[in-house]
Amino acid sequence: MALIELDEVSRTFVIRTKAGRLRRERREVRAVDRLSFTVGAGECVGYIGPNGAGKSTTVKMLTGILVPSSGRLRVAGVDPARERSRLARRIGVVFGQRTTLWWDLPLRDSYELARRLYRIEPRRFAANLDRCVELLQLGELLDTPVRQLSLGQRMRGDLAAALLHDPEVLYLDEPTIGLDVVSKVRVREFLREVNAAGTTVLLTTHDLTDIEQLCGRVMVIDHGRVVYDGSLPGLHALGGSERTLVVDLVREGAPIEVTGARVVRVEGARQWLAFPAARSAAPIVAAVAERYPLVDLSVREPVIEDVIARMYQGAVIG
Ligand SMILES: Nc1ncnc2c1ncn2[C@@H]1O[C@H](COP(=O)(O)OP(=O)(O)OP(=O)(O)O)[C@@H](O)[C@H]1O
Description:
Oligomer: single chain
Main location: membrane
Strand order of the largest sheet: 5-6-7-3-8-9
Number of helices: 10
Helix content: 25-40%
CATH topology of the largest domain: Rossmann fold
GO molecular function: ATP binding
Membrane topology: Peripheral membrane protein
Bound molecules: adenosine-5'-triphosphate
Keywords: Antibiotic resistance, ATP-binding, Nucleotide-binding, Transport
Number of domains: 2
Shape: globular
Strand content: 25-35%
Organism: Kitasatospora nipponensis
Mean pLDDT: 92
């Protein structure tokens, strides 16, 4: 069953700019351009694209904040713009850069407000809160005012707030932005559990590791249109994008030689090895670790803009 359905959805903005002392120019920006796609119940879909591609505009239309200029849009069978409050009970939204929590109140009070706002039945509320507190390790934070929380703690608090009313669909906009490695891991683990329990997830991010670890399907949007819909390895394979293994050796040495990767940069005891992003890093990491004395290793994902640029090149060449 499709939970999210867009059929030829467009959204234009009119921008008026000054052109001379008195004259104003009127320009139309088509942020979303005859966009069609469906997302099935239980899917976790990565929604990625360069800056200004139309991602936020899509998500705003899916929540009912923005009205489409044309086309048909349904979320859980509801027209978001027409029945925004009815839809609000069925969706959860988390924006990494903003919080829905009350700044001066303890976390617990924001949750209590959500309970009243969504009229969540008390037993269900208690069970959901317990589950979120356990999975997100919020126990010790419940009585802390939100303004005193770290970014990672606040994000975990926001995730719980978005899920207390058991939404069928969860929209996430950059949920790991600015978080340290440990917090990122915790947030991703939680999202995996939420999705495994049946919640449909639409995830907007600039961090390809989020997509790699959570989404079986990725949609790339550019200039308001879907330009790729498939798996992440498939996207990498299209343009031949590469990941980088950063290796800190115990001491400086000759460039590392392992099958499947090539050294692209050397700086003192640090070496950078590029390898196809569609392939697993595991055999390369194992080969390097076996043959070279190491201090540290890390894998860097390519940036989304590069992957998309390469995808276009691949599509032209291929
Ligand atoms: N309220 C608005 N008024 C005018 N133009 C807008 C408005 N909102 C978005 N746009 C324009 O629509 C286009 C798509 O913007 P949108 O914010 O949806 O992109 P995005 O993919 O979310 O980008 P980012 O990754 O930078 O958040 C951009 O050209 C943007 O300038």
